[in-house]
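Subject: for your reference before the review

Hello V.,

The reviewers asked for a structural picture of the protein, and I figured it would be easier to keep everything in one thread rather than splitting it across files. Below is the amino acid sequence we used in the manuscript, unchanged from the supplementary table.
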Amino acid sequence: MREKNFTSRLKALPLKEKAVFMGSFLLMIATVLPWYNDLDRFNYGDSFLGITGPLYLAGLLVFASAAASFGILLMKTLGRDLPKLPLKESQVHIAGGALSLLMLILTNSVYFHPKFGVNLTEKTMGLGMYIAFAGVGMIILGSFMVVKRNISVGIGELEDEGKIEPLIDMNERTPAGIDDSDVDIDAMIDNIQKTTNDIHDKQN
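And here is what came back from the structure prediction:
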């Protein structure tokens, strides 16, 4: 029963949040897959996971940022209350995605630099690095779609708040309970003219 509830809640998530959810999940998996492979002049090769090797700290930061986004959306899917965060949910996803992207670029720039591993004759990216870039792309895309939606909703609310409704509807001048057909306009004009003439005669 719980599995059915979780599946139904997951399907009910907006497409934007699904992208962040799946992207963060892929990114966590990518950190335990090979990020790069090398081969030295003695034809001895080595392979490093995202959380191993000389750049393991970058992999740990990527895993932590992905786990934060995944944990937030997982708690929402399970219907649990989120802890108080100093940032909005969309900002957490964007910050985590940006940090992960920076770490991936930094890792590749260091590893593929000619001064890194001078005895290596071949350097290649592993499957985990490709999956990591795909996951980061999904997180950033989904986060910006969420932010765009929030901005659109905020502008709509401001426009609604900016509308000024008139206190009196000029189209409803007839008192309540009186039909327009019951009002004799000519008689009213005659009474006004008569009253005006009487005031004028008294003044004279």
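For the response letter, the relevant points are probably these. Confidence is low (pLDDT under 50) at residues 153-160. The CA atoms of residues 194 and 200 lie 10 Å apart.

Happy to draft the paragraph if you're swamped.

O.
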